Amino acid sequence: MIEFLKAYLAASPVRKTSKRRILAIVSALVIICSIVTLTAFAAAATYKVTIEEDGVEPITVSTREDTIEEFLKKNSKKYTLGKYDYLDTSEFVAGEDCTLTIYRAQTIKVVDEGEIHHLKGAGPAKQMLEKHGIVLGKFDEVNIPDDVMVSSDKTVEISRSFGVTILADGKEVDVEIASGTVTDALKRANIVLDEDDETIPTAESTLVSEMTIEVLRVEYKERVATEVIPFETITRRTPDLYVGQTKVKVKGSDGEKEVTYKDKYVNGELDSSEVLDEKILKEMVTKVVLKGRVPRVNTIKFKNGLSPISELKVPSKVKLDANGLPTSYKKIVDGTAKSYYGGGTTASGRKAMPGHIAVNPKQFPYGTELYIVSLDGKFIYGYCIAADTGGFVKTNSCTVDLYMNTIEECYAWGHRGVRIYVL
Questions:
Q1: DSSP secondary structure of 287-322
Q2: Same domain, 122 and 70
Q3: Which of 44, 150, 163, 398 is deepest in the core (most CB within 10 A)?
Q4: Positions of the chain with pLDDT under 50
Q5: How many CB atoms lie within 10 A of CB 167?
Q6: Of 292, 324, 348, which marks where a domain is finished?
Q7: CATH number of the domain within which 345 lies
Q8: DSSP letters of 376-403?
């Protein structure tokens, strides 16, 4: 407008235009500008508010109010609200077309700690409850969120808060909460669990009134230790010793191992250890103890009329006493004997026959002359020669294995104690 005025004055020489006329022109222009500005402002400040209600024709109002309070005050006669009705103004925006929604009161079922009420109301649950004087504590909970309106098909459930106690880091913290798990209570108390930490009861446990929750600060550490492997001792019965005699065959020795542990510390104290790995540094040697099983017999008496089982003739150099036992020998070995039959040839090449017996060649080399009788005095096997290797050598089940002619003789002999005279 100023530029227009300058252009006009430049085109009209001042000497030909009176001051009064110029003043009149300027005034007219100012008035025109004011009218245009006011008209534009008025048009821009007007916006529409639509009031909606389910089942009712919407009401649209043009307005210039700056706040919802001003709008409601000015337009209160255009709608009606009952005591328990609710007007939702959450979508109101001053200066913009927007909507208000009226919710009419319905009968709402409310359950408060098991006590049932039927109340008239509409809108958010908490506001409806306040209208009826039902006060919610700071940590009480309602099952319907604030952004959801109550209705007759929704039951409003109130959970009243209760106290739980948390023991953590040497402190005792009391928490008020209405529902949830141990994890929820810890969040309420601003207690953070590290990855390995635990709780009693567990983090997923449902909260109950007056519950005590213990926080266990858990830390895992690995350690390596060198440990002794104590040697074991086994006992084997042997026919080479008398009953009551023992002999150490293998001297035992401890082994050594390197063990990797995973130690669990709870609140700074060692709680348990888990073996992660073991490495043997030195093998343990098992101690072997031989225990005699041959009864000690000082005098053997035979029944009258016993004949030797062996078919070998007693050499003239071997003298027998009145009891039928050698009078001269290198040593005596008391042990046990089994029996076998079947014919064939022995390991030393001799014919399998009564008198050619099976032995442990390390104890009685092939060709060793022996004289054998049973300790119970029931049998005389007689003069014999070590000629074969017995299968008992691997099992150490007897001292010698005596050849018989028949299976019946083997059954009769069985497995019995013998005295072996080494000639």
A1: EEEEEEEEPP-S---PPTT---S--SPPPTT--B-T
A2: no
A3: 150
A4: 1-2, 4-17, 26, 29-30, 33-43
A5: 15
A6: 292
A7: 2.40.40.10
A8: TSS-EEEEEEEEEE-GGGTTT--SEEEE
Please compute, for residue 301, the number of CA atoms within 13 A of its CA located in the half-sphere on the CB side. Answer: 0
Point out the domain boundary residue: 245, 263, 292: 292
Query: From the CB of residue 292, how many other CB atoms can be counted at a distance below 10 Å?
Result: 19
Rounded Cα distance, 211 and 247, in Å: 66
Instruction: Report the C-alpha gap between 5 and 13 in whole angstroms.
Output: 13
Is the domain of 239 the same as that of 286? yes
**What is the DSSP secondary-structure string of 119-147?**
EEE-SBHHHHHHHTT-PPPTT-EESS-TT
**Identity of residue 83:** K
Three-state secondary structure call for residue 44: helix
Mean pLDDT, the chain, rounded, equals 89
Q: How many domains does the chain have?
A: 6
Q: How much of the chain, in percent, has pLDDT values that exceed 90?
A: 78
CATH at 235: 2.20.230.10
- In this structure, the answer to whether residues 99 and 115 fall within a common structural domain is no
Burial class (CB in 10 A: 0-12, 13-18, 19+), 365: exposed
Listing DSSP states for 155-171 in one string gives -EEEE--EEEEEEETTE
Query: Could you tell me the residue range of the domain that residue 388 belongs to?
Result: 295-422
pLDDT confidence of residue 403 = 97
Are residues 177 and 259 both part of a single domain? no
Same domain, 345 and 388: yes
User: How far lies 213's CA from each of 167, 181, 204, 205, in Å?
Assistant: 6, 11, 12, 10
State both tokens at 171. 């402190």
Peptide bond into 201 cis (omega under 30): yes
